[in-house]
Amino acid sequence: MARFEMLEAGFGAMGATAQADILFELGMMYATGRDCETDVVAAHKWFNIAAIKGSVRAAELRSELSAAMSKVEIAKALREAREWMTMH
Q1: What is the reported pLDDT for 15?
Q2: In the chain, what are the domain boundaries?
Q3: DSSP string spanning 36-84?
Q4: pTM surpassing 0.90?
Q5: Residues 21-71: tens digit of each pLDDT
């Protein structure tokens, strides 16, 4: 599965819009299976984090994706997003 590390120097100094755009693209990558296996949990996680960072489009796609996910999948995605936010 593809993985994107955001531990690069300077990521924290990037503007919120740039961060949201990168996180949105991660959501799109997992939602569409671009360069990785399709993973709705990972897509929801990244859309959720991008939405928190200010991406309106990510919030919309997260909502659409949620409609096709089970409660267990949504809970897992929310837990993973919360863990990521706590660490970063």
Answers
A1: 61
A2: 16-85
A3: S---HHHHHHHHHHHHHTT-HHHHHHHHHHHHTS-HHHHHHHHHHHHHH
A4: no
A5: 999 999 999 999 999 999 999 999 999 999 999 999 999 999 999 999 999
Please choose, from the candidates 52, 50, 28, 53, the residue with its C-alpha nearest in 3D space to the C-alpha of residue 39: 28
Cα separation, 36 vs 23, whole angstroms: 16
- CA-CA-CA-CA torsion for 35, 55, 88, 83, nearest 10 degrees? -80
| pLDDT score at 14 | 56
Please state the φ and ψ torsions of residue 68, each to the nearest 5 degrees. -105, 5
Identity of the residue numbered 10: G
